[in-house]
Amino acid sequence: MNKEVLVVIGAGGIGLAIARRLGSGKNVLLADINQDTLETAVKALKTDGHQVSAQRVDVSSHESVHSLANAAANLGNILQVVTTAGLSPVMAPPKAILAVDLLGVALVLEEFCHVIAPGGAGLVISSMAGYMPPPLPPEQNEALAHTPADELLQLPFLGPDAVPNSGAAYGISKRANHLRVQAASIDWGEHGARINSISPGIILTPLAEQEMSGPGGPGYRAMIEASPARRVGTTDEIASAAAYLLGPDAGFITGSDLLIDGGVIAAMRSGRLNLPL
Q1: What CA–CA distances, in Å, run from 54 to 44, 87, 117?
Q2: Parent domain of 9
Q3: What's the CATH number where 191 sits?
Q4: pLDDT, tens digit (0-9, with 9 covering 90-100), for 61-113
Q5: How many separate domains does the chain show?
Q6: pTM as predicted
Q7: Which of 26, 131, 174, 220 is catalytic?
Q8: Quick check: is 220 catalytic?
Q9: In a domain, 276, yes or no
Q10: pLDDT digits (tens, 9 = 90+) for 2-44
């Protein structure tokens, strides 16, 4: 019997929660650029009884993502693919954020489209930051959605002068995620598969704690206080939404983004929360 395969790219808090939620009875392939993070996640899942293999991946490298897709295909029928890999504004300069958060997602969408099984589904973990920048000109939306992945970072409006800081790089990368997922849903549909994204707000992970303890900490606390939920989210809440979007109950949903932010974006658009962008 050709066993079902779950691929999770990014073995941090959200990736691990999704793997734990969806991995029972499947071949789980975990991938991450950080070997220590990968080994820790694999050990945790194996302790829980999951069947897990691991492969190091650099999502900004086409060759590395291609190799991961082939490795996944060799394990069985790839029915679920999740990418959570990303860098936050406090972690890296603009060039690196664009390479991982924007190009990396585009490469995963392109490569796994070729190997996803009929009836399968993919999921990109994006961010509410994709809803924060002002609207882009239509021609930029078109370019972000449809430019071949290997040419994306050559777009003039993604150059150093146009994207001057890490926050700007992060916001446009996450906006691009939404556009790429919507565009990719056409190609994935030709393979009988679906692709969607989730845009989490402030989810309590080690990465979020790092962000909140840095220069952006006051802004994060302001978002929490102004939001209707008045709290952070949990990795389990994201995993629950992922299980829905990757499962049979979401069979009519593709090319969509689910915003899970406790109402932060609603607070911004109502004027209750004002943040410098």
Answers
A1: 13, 21, 20
A2: 4-270
A3: 3.40.50.720
A4: 999 999 999 999 999 999 999 999 999 888 899 999 999 999 999 999 999 99
A5: 1
A6: 0.95
A7: 174
A8: no
A9: no
A10: 689 999 999 999 999 999 999 999 999 999 999 999 999 999 9
